[in-house]
Amino acid sequence: MSNGMFRKLTTRFPYERVHLAPERIAGILAKCASVRGQEAFENVVLEKPTEGTVFVFELSPSEPLPEDGYGWLDDEDLYKMEVTHGVCFTTDKRSLALTTNFAYWLSTKSLEIYSRNRGFDFGDQVARITRRRYRLAHSNFQLLHYALCTEPAHQIPIQQHMIKTMPRGRQALSSLAAQAAQQQHQQHQQHQQHQGQHYGSQQSTRRSSGAQREPIHPGGRKRIRHSKASTSTQPEERDPSGDELDVAEGRKVALERYKRNHVFMDMIFSPHSTVDIQPPKLIEGDDGPDRLAAILAQQAEVEREIHEMAEAHERSLRPLLEVAELSDV
Q: How many CB atoms neighbour CB 49 within 10 A?
């Protein structure tokens, strides 16, 4: 986790306008913990998520929560609930209005709920955003959910002396975006360096294992082997030098650049991932005479339909034109 960035799970979740049931949240977090190491993560800068946004991220309890871009009039309030066999028992006197429709646990689990109810942005007159952060005990996986503030008690006017956290401005966002791009570049360089070292170690291992000593006779001379295997030429292993770009297709290069740029924009402006972007498929058809004749016939049919529609429209307008001419007389 880097400063100001969330280590977010790339899995997308549907928008939820109302707060989720704790059993469902516990099931999601438990499933994420069970497939740890199999899911992909990405570092993103969160910038004022819209209401209904749900995502899972990884954060150690000892690390501070990165900012989400909103201003807040209140601090996070902690609730603890025990989830057992799909029934919720709150350990806090302030109960939450949550439904219990599903059962995910066969044993008791402690669910921590960090609630923040008075969020706002520049230009807002009253608080309008609520945020809930969920975490199972002894787990680093957490879930964030944003919703509109519907309780009148939380929709209070924004006053300067009540502000706990100011909204993030464009200058701070630009600074975070620059840090994110720099970190992405450093990670890419480290990855390439690691791959180069791994490749070099493999090459040295192959050379050392390929060098075999020839057997020597007691007389002190080497035995000369005459076989087809000794005279056959082995193909030389080719080192990657970057010359592949000279023969690369322009479409593939442009596509990779397009996806990379959208990954950068996604890290700055969106809580969602762009890993699901699929390149468009080329239309591979038969351009022979038969296909050309079929296209021309289809074009003629369309032109004929357009001509018939124009004539029908003209016939429908004739009575109206005649009435208009009589009224002018």
A: 20
Give the C-alpha separation, 249 to 255, whole Å.
Answer: 10
Question: What average pLDDT is seen over the chain?
Answer: 76
For residue 239, the 8-state DSSP code is: P
Which distant-in-sequence residues (6+ apart) come within 8 Å of 92 by Cβ? Answer: 79, 80, 81
**Residue 316 parent element (H or E):** helix 289-328
Residues with Cβ within 8 Å of 206's Cβ and at least 6 positions away in sequence, in order, are: 237
Q: What's the rounded mean pLDDT across residues 296-316?
A: 92
Q: What's the rounded Cα separation, in Å, for the pair 322 and 327? A: 9
- CB–CB of 81/89 below 8 Å? yes
Q: The pTM is what? A: 0.51
Over residues 80-113, the pLDDT tens digits come to 998 864 444 444 434 333 334 433 345 578 899 9
Summarised one tens digit per residue, pLDDT across range 217-244 is 444 444 545 444 444 445 454 544 455 5
**How wide is the angle at C-alpha 120 spanned by C-alphas 116 and 126, nearest 5°?**
105
Tokens describing residue 257: 């650049």
Longest dimension (CA), the chain: 132
Residue with tokens 């502000």: 163
**How many Cα atoms occupy the beta-carbon half-sphere of 36 within 13 Å?**
9
57 DSSP β-pair partners: 8, 142
- Cβ-contact 63, 1 below 8 angstroms: yes
CA–CA dist 203, 240 (Å, integer)? 12
C-alpha span between 106 and 109 (Å, rounded)? 9
In angstroms, rounded to a whole number, what is the distance separating the alpha carbons of residues 81 and 77?
A: 13
Q: Are 74 and 117 in contact (CB under 8 A)?
A: yes
Per-position DSSP letters for 165-219, written without gaps between them: BPPP-HHHHHHHHHHHHHHHHHHHHHHHHHHHHHHHHHHHHHHHHH--PPPB-TT
C-alpha span between 57 and 42 (Å, rounded): 9
